[in-house]
What we know:
This protein has a ten-stranded antiparallel sheet with strand order 1-2-9-10-11-12-20-17-16-15, with helices on one face. A five-stranded antiparallel sheet has the order 3-4-5-6-14, with no helix packed on it. A five-stranded antiparallel sheet has the order 8-7-13-19-18, with no helix packed on it. 50% of the residues are buried. It is elongated. It has 659 residues and is of the alpha+beta class. It has two domains: 9-271, Beta-galactosidase, Chain A, domain 5 (Distorted Sandwich), CATH 2.70.98; 274-656, Glycosyltransferase (Alpha/alpha barrel). Helices cover 29% and strands 25% of the residues.
Amino acid sequence: MGAKDSSSWRGSCDGPWPHAHVGGELDHAESEWLITNDQGAYAMSTLALMHTRRQHGILVTHLGDDFKRHVVLSHLEMTLEVGGRSFQLSTHQFPNVAPTPGYRLLDSFTQDPLPRWVYRLPQGTVERTITLVRGHRAVITAFTWSGKEPARLTLRPLMPMRLADGLCLEHGAMLQKVTLRAGEVEVQPVSELPAVVFRHSGVFMGSPDWWRKFEYLDDRGRYEDFQEDMWSPGTFEVTLQPRRTEYLMAFVGRAPADAPQELLMAAAQHALSCDPGQPRAAAVRSLSVSVESFVLGDGEAIVAGLPWLDVWSRDWLLALPGTFLARAQQERAERSVTLLLARLVDGFLPQRLTAVEAARTPCVDATLWVFPVVARIARTSVDTAAFLARIMPTLDEMFARLSSGPRATAWLTDEGLLENSGHGPLTWMDARVGDYSFTPRRGLAVELQGLWVQAARCYAELCETVGQPEGAGKAERAIEKARAAFSRRFWNRESGYAYDCISPGPNFDQSWSDPAIRPNALIAVAVAPELFESWQRLDVLSRVEEYLLSERGVRTLDPRHSFYVGNSGGTIEERRAASHQGTVWPHLLLYYVRAKLHEYPEDREALTELVERALLAGRALGYVSQNADGDAPHRCRGSPAYASATAMLLEALVLDLGG
Length: 659
């Protein structure tokens, strides 16, 4: 089963919730579903519950402080016996055979608001609902039977107990010890990892065993290995009475205190509360629900993407306005940016916040993005003075650091442009395999000039608000100096577009430049239109529409360029190498919308339709994928659920287009 870009799904009649009619057809069940909780745990698979990625599972969570996720519970192998017949309801892919046939009984999938599967048998239907428990590393699976006579449900947990990016192969080190308590079973198959506790209402029969050679079809070609063995401690047998729900809970760490039905209801109520309801547009409602999946705690962090990305400062900032401000969550926005700024290192934000080395690596564009985010939050704060009193000392430090002379990361040149060292994660377009950079942003990068001018403009605004005229004057002088230098240096008359990168030297006869048409000039036009003359902004938009704009987003390179890669599949290294050589990135549509509205404010309806069309191709229902192939049909690639893409399209629809 090779996962497609989208399934035949629609929002249910009760809200923005995905619904797919499967009807026993495997092709109708290839899209992915995803749920998370506030602890960073997730559950994810295809609609058929046939895993196609090693990162799939029904309880995937971090088990320590390093945010390294582990697949604790991959499957609940499910068999129903009724009327003397046995029905296998699970679907797996094993080598050289057709998938096991559980999908043939799958009638539909609905997430309303929790994922729910309906299996249709001759004697009745069985519904399966999965939810993660808020505040805990726990998953609950609920089963409801509609037949006239009782049925017996057999569940076998499959537990690889390994890092989400790894694989488990059969070995002799799994501990076979099982501790039984009333209504509970505790297992700890790996001594270095916490114990897993199951709460149940049936009978547990210990029969430790290995299930072998599960195949992950989406991993073929991406990784060298795509087969896995999984350990099981035994089986649970539960009697299903007609129209009565039974529950199986699995958790690590602190035990939930409430009953499963109460925990399930709390998760459902939280999901429902994320829906802004009518009369908001369907796309706005769907994205409003989806962006909550990336939030840790009550705004303590925003995860960059699922299932394999963690917390990156750039993605956190890019996603913050759409995640909180587009949903009128002012307090969460203030809390979130305040907590992020507490991670500052020597005047710069770090690249990542969950890896020791990356936590010391400065990220230039993330640091620049702080200023417009803080300014936007301050404009709508109920207590702007108190908010800025907490924030301004840090912003003063950051602005002074950026305004200084040559440093190891980034600095202002004598002519007032922002130069970077060419080392480290300078901008979003930083594609590396090992130490080799495929899209070097050395010298003077056009988007960094736009971000610098935007940062200075917002810093001046904030200084005026808190009564710091000296700081405002310094920022305004920096803007004027940058504008003059930008006007002299960046425009390429031959292409009618801005250079992507140029040398820092002021003399043209000693300089080099990159004339490639990439979306970075679009970013600069969107965030700092004052850098361009009116006719230049129109030319940038014209080139973007001619060579970069697609129905899924904006390409990262002009298809006429010799480095263009139209299909970005292959191994992880090949995908990284191609990730900015033509791939389409949906989040860039926000910059196109913003630049277009600046010149053509009457185009709101057409821009709204463009954004809404881009939402339909995601791999995970309700979410926006990280990127897609540059060539049609623009197959989705990267993280199936990408925070900044999901949030920035919501930001475009609500805050820019008024949806």
